[in-house]
Design brief:
3-stranded antiparallel sheet
Length: 581
């Protein structure tokens, strides 16, 4: 932008001649504004890392739309495969967060998927294939030659590179392309674009130097473009471009960086910060001046030696710094004068805060969103506004996620499914959640209308994980009951042995064996006729009251049950029927 850009009319020209400032739209900071899109992208990077407000706001706004992933398939095995791929292998939510950050900073995000392959070298004589990682070759970029000695035919050959697809999900990589290195050939009639990548000089230098790590894993098309010093052209649907909508008068193939509107505001804050820095260095800390105070009409210079007074003052100050209780004696009164120290009144903190608020307003971000305090009670309308404002970003992230899924399924030969992010709900709609729960559980006597999977996703619950936890809890409970039964049986056997020893007189206690057994048999007959719950309650009471009698009852009850089981088996073997229990 220059002054000539605003001087197209006669009236404006006349105004320029009459005004002291010829062009009101051209100020000091305008001279620092970039003129080219790629320069604006570099300025956007600078603003991101040099403004705490912009950095925090863009990070929070980008993270806002990246929610949990919903997998649109009824195949549990396929859902688990995609979930493991996205959650454990690719960390897809992190990739989406980085994509959202690129879009908010540059106004554009370019990404592709690196499909792993293994490069082999083929001998032109014996046609032996060998993994390039196992070959000590010499690479010549001008001829794209891989010179090595074939181990089979023992000849020095120029191997032909053969790339084979590597079906390994762990080797797949999501590439983020630097927008500053991208060129776009755009047709405004059809709206179609062809994308080119300007390979960085650093990569070119490493390939020319023979860096095998790059050469072994870089597609041959890249190596050919490095050799020919040409731009790399992306294939059809090989790159995904999400962008911020720009006015029709600006390059439509590019998204316009949102930070462009904050550039002059940011430069203005830098001017204020620089001014505050100068004020702080010069005016914040005052300089103190000690001087003797004149009293009456007598000349103080006739009373003391100023050089000796100065030396004494320096020495006493040193002593006072070492010992705060030091007392100084002076022949004349002392005075203290200050110079500076008025910097606080000169600082431009208010203007700086207003400029930072203007930056947030230019980005369309409420101040409460950055500093906190955004609640449903007081800011429901603002929350709803942010939710609508971020809907376009959420749609772009869903398109990118589905593009990733289609590419992954095609490369890995998996069945393609629909994937999307859970809807962003900044306002907690409790009534809607209750309605969904009712439709899923069939409350009110109606048949379920909504699936449990949909209900769990709306509530932020992973249904598969919950089922795994429920199954594990059931198994743990069964193991606990089994272990409890074993321990109780051991305890019962131990008590029975003790009772038997006591009855035989080994324990030194005087028990009437026949009376104890007769009483135990009576209790057994009573317990047989009770239901299991009542029987357990009676046995527990007996154990508390008389452990010896409890052990005898357990033993006699077990003997009776074994006897009935033996009789039942004998009748079944003899063709009879089981007696009623």
């Amino acid at each position: 932008m220059s002054e000539s850009d605003f001087s197209g009319t006669d009236s404006l020209t006349a105004f320029n001649r009459a005004a002291s400032h010829p062009n009101p739209a051209y100020d000091f900071l305008t001279g620092f504004a970039p003129r080219k899109l790629k320069d604006l992208l570099r300025w956007s990077e600078y603003l991101l890392y040099n403004s705490a407000h912009i950095y925090a706001a863009l990070r929070k706004f980008g993270e806002l739309v990246v929610t949990d992933i919903e997998y649109g398939t009824s195949n549990d095995a396929l859902r688990r495969k995609y979930r493991h791929l996205y959650d454990k292998t690719l960390k897809i939510k992190g990739a989406l967060l980085r994509a959202a950050l690129d879009k908010h900073v540059y106004g554009n995000h370019f990404s592709s998927i690196y499909q792993p392959f293994v490069r082999h070298l083929k001998c032109p004589h014996c046609e032996t294939l060998v993994n390039i990682n196992n070959v000590d070759y010499k690479f010549e970029l001008k001829k794209l030659a891989f010179l090595y000695t074939c181990k089979k035919c023992k000849k020095s050959v120029n191997g032909k590179p053969v790339d084979r697809k590597l079906m390994s999900a762990s080797k797949i990589h999501i590439i983020r392309w630097d927008p500053k290195q991208i060129d776009i050939e755009y047709n405004p009639i059809t709206g179609q674009s062809i994308y080119y990548y300007n390979i960085t000089q650093d990569v070119k230098d490493k390939v020319k130097a023979g860096a095998k790590h790059l050469i072994n894993s870089t597609p041959m098309e890249f190596l050919e473009n490095i050799r020919d010093n040409k731009l790399f052209r992306f294939g059809q649907d090989a790159i995904f471009h999400s962008k911020v909508a720009s006015p029709s008068g600006i390059d439509q193939q590019w998204g316009f960086p949102p930070l462009a509107s904050t550039l002059k505001l940011f430069l203005y804050t830098m001017v204020l910060r620089k001014a505050n820095e100068a004020i702080a260095l010069e005016h914040i800390v005052p300089m103190r001046i000690l001087h003797p105070v004149q009293q009456g009409q007598q000349d103080i210079s006739q009373m003391i030696s100023f050089s000796r007074w100065q030396d004494e003052m320096k020495e006493n100050v040193k002593r006072w710094r070492r010992d705060p209780l030091h007392i100084m004696f002076a022949p004349v009164p002392l005075g203290v004068a200050s110079m500076g120290g008025d910097g606080r009144a000169m600082l431009t903190l208010g203007e700086l805060q207003e400029a930072e608020k203007s930056i947030m307003a230019a980005l369309g971000i409420p101040q409460e969103f950055l500093y906190g305090g955004l609640t449903k009670a007081g800011m429901e309308a603002t929350l709803r506004l942010i939710e609508n404002q971020t809907q376009n970003d959420a749609d772009d992230m869903n398109d990118l996620l589905q593009w990733y899924t289609d590419k992954m399924s095609k490369f890995l030969s998996w069945e393609s499914i629909d994937t999307k992010l859970s809807p962003l709900k900044m306002v907690d709609d409790t009534e809607t959640k209750q309605t969904i729960i009712g439709l899923a559980t069939g409350q009110g006597g109606t048949a379920p209308v909504v699936s449990l999977t949909t209900m769990a996703e709306r509530l932020g619950i992973d249904l598969d994980d919950e089922r795994e936890k429920r199954m594990q809890e059931a198994l743990d409970e069964a193991k606990f009951q089994q272990k409890l039964q074993v321990e109780m049986q051991k305890m019962q056997n131990t008590l029975a042995q003790q009772v038997q020893q006591q009855v035989q007189g080994q324990s030194g206690l005087n028990y009437d064996q026949q009376a104890v057994i007769a009483q135990a048999d009576g209790l057994v007959q009573q317990l047989i006729g009770l239901d299991p719950n009542t029987r357990r309650s009676q046995m527990h009471s007996l154990q508390v009251e008389d452990a010896v009698m409890y052990a005898v009852v357990v033993q006699r009850l077990e003997e009776l049950q074994n006897q009935q089981t033996a009789q039942a088996k004998a009748q079944v073997t003899g063709g009879g029927q089981l007696p009623p229990m």
